[in-house]
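Hi U.,

Before I forget, here's the chain from the pilot set. I'm dumping it here mostly so it's searchable later in email.
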Amino acid sequence: MESLSSNVRMHNLARLEKEPFDIVVIGGGVTGAGVALDAAARGYKVALLEKSDFASGTSSKSTKLVHGGIRYLPNFDFGLVREALIERGFLLQNAPFLVNPLPFVLPIYEGDRHPVGMPFTTPGGIGLGRLLDLGLWLYDGLAGRRNVDRHRHISRAEVMRLAPLLVTNGLKDGFVYYDAQTNDARLTMAIMRTAAQYGVVIANYAEITGFVTEDGKVKGVNIHDRLTDRRFETSARYMINATGVYSEMIEEMTGATPQAEIVPSKGVHLVLDRKKLQIGDSAIVLPETDDKRILFIVPWESRVIFGTTDTGTGDLDHPSASQDDINYLLGYLNRYLSVDLTQEDIISVYAGYRPLVRPRGSKSSTAKLSRSHAVLENPSGLISIVGGKLTTYRRMAQDTMDIVSKRDGLSKPLHPTQQIPLQGSAGWLIRKRELQDRGEALGLDPDVIKHLGHSYGTEAEALYQYIDEEVALAERLIPDLPYIRAEVIYACRREMAMKPEDVIARRTSIILEDQRSGLEALEDIVSLMGRELEWSTEQQQDMIQSSRGRLEPQKAAEKI
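Structure:
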């Protein structure tokens, strides 16, 4: 029985119905996975429940960056920036195959007023370059010994070499500074699988429909298995709400007043052809926007990701880009690059919600709300972890479990996750070359070998074993993308993929990188999943139709 197969899912649900737990974590995004891992590493008996699929919300809809948040320096949020930079260092240490250093080119133009979203400026922009240099020295310094690399000042010619399509009119010079990049959905799965190794009982498509209470205190949860329509309950000493934008709704289910107001802020990203923008291995920070936001052009495989917006809310279950969102992003892209891109050039569009926290009664706009997190204790006993961002998930989990440890009378809690390598990381630097040779011996193309290493680390060996057993699994799912058929098998056997979109949208990034081709590959993916999950011919056809229905609205976003 492999770590997170469909059989394990059914076994886990049976355990939930029969056994009491120390902790039930509600939410299968990066924060929930982090809490579950931290709790299990401290010795607690833990279960994690997710109403949809893992990372199906915000945790697969980010800009894919692991960063300190350079835009928060001008707001003097030094504590937030330092915390994120330290966490960036832990991620580079504990998931080296999945988190990689990334240089950022920051161009400086004559007349710039608010680069990197600065809320203030200097008269006529005089001395702004020196001010930015000081800020970047501070950014490097706050990271301490975990800094990726020192920033440097670069000439106009160097800016043009690194970002040849930037408009040259008024370009003075620039800077290069460093952060890191990851695959957010794969990171969530790596944490989830590591948590499973530590004994966490995990199930996706398991929705919390209510709480079991006793004298006003939560003692358990009502669970709805959305795949079999079975309902039951489980008990635990602690309930931890890690549901992001849904946190307030979960708190309301206890019958007590929620402790904070969650303000969902929509972030929209465009996915474009890397060649059309002539992007190399460096990200680009666009100079400034009229609303003082910061926009990144980030290389991502054969594509670039461009974003993000910071706009109001909508349907939390189905975030989508509006025409205004797309016009906003295309407008700035065409303003600062020597291109004339239209919606026809957009490969994909995706949107997600940041779970920003606002004290009740405040009227602050989402753009001004901090990305810092808070651990809230509801009178019912429910503990909620709210706010934060992808980079700080581990610290959020640690702070949450410190509250639990305090309740249990532990005065000096352990912080084990600072040193726990995520699955696929152990021995990566030593085995990287060996796995490269193994892939070459199997006849895999260099881009496929590179992709498997960056996505699975040492776990790529499992995919190579599948190919040893069945050569056809080495075939690509889509001709010009590096995803192979063995990944579908791995997703089913080891990552609890239960529906085709779990594979297309989260275990891989196919729907992000090429929605049209992803839908064309759907039948092959369903056939492979059907073999693993024992779907009948009729069930496979139903899966194809239902998945098309769920994925087509995402495809339509670029056609607005």
